[in-house]
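Entry 0007
Protein: alpha-glucosidase
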Amino acid sequence: MADYRYDFPNQPETNPKAIVKGSHYRFSVLTDQLLRYEWSEDGGFEDRVSTFALFRWFDAPHYRVVESKNSLEIITDHFHLRYDKRAFSSSGLSVTVGSDVWQYDGKSYGDLGGTARTLDGAYGRVALEPGVLSRKAYAVLDDSKSMLFDEDGWIATRRPGRLDGYVFAYNGDHKAAIRDFYRISGSQPVLPRWTLGNWWSRYHEYSAGEYLEIMDHFKREGIPLNVGVVDMDWHKVNLPPGYGSGWTGYSWNRDLFPDPDGFLKELRKRNLKVTLNDHPADGIRAFEDLYEAVAKALNRDPSKKEAIEFDCTDREFLDAYFDVLKLALEKQGCDFWWVDWQQGNRSKIPGVDPLWVLNHYHYLTSKRSLKTLQRPLTFSRYAGAGSHRYPIGFSGDQQTTWEGLEFQPEFTATASNIGYGWWSHDIGGHWGGVRSNQLNVRWVQLGCFSPILRLHSNKSPWNSREPWNYEPEAARAIKDFLILRHRLIPFLYTMNIRASYEHEPLVQPMYWNHPDAHEAYTVPTQYYFGPDLLVAPITSPDSAATLMGGARAWLPPGRGRYVDLLHPRLVYDSDGGRYMRLHRPLARMPLLAPEGTILPLDGSARLANGSPRPTEITILLVVGRNAQFELVEEPEQHHGESVDNTTNNNNNNNERPALRSFVRTPISWNQASGVLTIGPEWNGSGRWRQWHVKLVGHTGSDVAAAVAPGFRVTRDLDEGCTTVALGNVHRWNPEGFEIALGRDLQLDVVDVERGVFDMLHRCEMLYELKDPVWDLVRSATEGDVRDRVQRLLGLKVDAAVKNAVMEIWAADGRSKGSAKGHEVWADVKGDSVESLEQVLEEYVIV
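Output (structure tokens):
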């Protein structure tokens, strides 16, 4: 028996000091904002691990109990429970939080949404299960029907007649609610570095040679990959009569892969991890190469050739499934499994969901492959609250539609409301829909700023995601964003550590950081990517007039100005928070960073498969405010030494590496002195590294006075940036090193005339209509700005053109003749006008 498969950290019992109970009820005051409620017909209560709750032992908070014969009240600083001591009912059990009152109804509640089990077949929006965040002062997670685990780590079920749930009384403090969600359910695991790069996947009958040629074509294009996904046709699909469906299989299709060992060896030579697709529902049948071995392990007579049915409730079957069947394929070179369960949530034992069983035990079993994986890993579908402990999630076979693309950023962000931070979507869509260069480019752009970037599509000969199969402009854009994804890995790995140890998922809805701002709830497709970056993906077709796509965004207050990292000539004031309509050509998307942002990128001239730790780092620096960033990298193994890289602390389900084992490099920017400090590196190996500093949105000549040993300065004025390139710096310098770039540097002022002229020049519209637009915007034009804005709106010009002009004209209040404060947006659908006053009336609570 594999002990690691049935052993995981947990502490399900509750601190007795936090418990208030009677003969049929029990309340656990886990914190002064988190309450567990239970009702039991038989008088017993559940102290075993559930799929949601692994850790229920908290320090008891301060609370008061007021009790009489027929009533009970529990009062903390944040909630007030009232209960009539009878079976739970809406009239007998309530919890007041702030000005809201929850009355028991046996349901989960979280109106900001969570996520869904799958996007299979989705054309656009799908219904979301609740998360633990809400616009009300409370959210509720009903845990009454979840699967359990016994003390020996095997599955168990609940006893009938028992109710079990949790009230999150956080009154808009979304991050506090999520922190306590992770405390009770376990943290997000640390992902291995290589997962954060590009994945190739397609449902297609590849031969070994065809698959390897595609991998080599990516290399010739200079596009790095980290994961080769091999969909179900790796195994036998066309079965002999009498064996049923070919969806399940564990025997290599020798017609396509005559030498599986050689094929997998070639993928390893290319520094690719390999995952094989598994639809396990049909079990192990007699045609399988490993049938006899599995039958003998289960004391079956293989000569009878009886099918061994899939039964997740049979421990002996599960052990043979992992330790005979899958282990043999893993030894061949399957690094981890893509578990593609689509057969519902029922098993032989009511209350046991096969997907939960598969996710839990695949993840724990993957510990035996740590030499290859570095960290435990599986790739499967979402099974419910607690699924964040088993990354990475596969969201399913979504249709290739603009509606699907528009919903995906919201779907990804709200998943964090139930702690689920590592979704992998079918980037580009899986099936159906329409072939569109624009749609695929915009989807890859979203994928670049998603938790996992996995290109995927179905078997159609017309539908594949190789960049070179698209038109030149689209192919170039796709390639650029796939390369950018790998450059982002130093940042992404740091965010990976932040997600696990600080309970901050990589992707977060805007309202997580601005819970009291109504506007933050009105931009569902916009999200935070890490602590600073604002992503507003373009999810609709480009305008035929401007040749640009548009996105409506909200710029939060308190962070100064924002610059677009991918279009640094655009700088936006945010003041007290403002809406903007952002427009970008196909090669760009809106990626905004506030003043005081540091973003480390892999600066290697050529990016390699597997994403080795870079020897060159490019720091994107947005000046204007002080900035800090600590670059975190995986623990290093020194020759001849062992590194203590595990910890088994409470509220941790996966024995994460000890924080002390990570390599850390602090990076800080002092706005007043103009000094950038890098290092010293902590816990590193002492190797050399080359550094580059790119001031995004700053092209001032004062940077020519940069001071640092071995530096040279290059001016990249065309891109709206200044780059300072340094020589090699020893990473073990005990004091780090400093670069003096210039005192109190500021972002460049937007050149309205240049920006509008360039934009109008590209517009495909009547020439005679360009002149009146241009005449209104030029700073030499007479007349009040507000009046000129109104005259612009009255022109018989495409609404998209008006909005694109307005964006540049109103972006930066420092610009000569700026329209900031007077901006008005045209309705691109109805060509009506959305004024600033109309925006405020529609979206802002007075």
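Curator remark: The radius of gyration is 29 Å. Residues 315-332 form the longest helix (18 residues).
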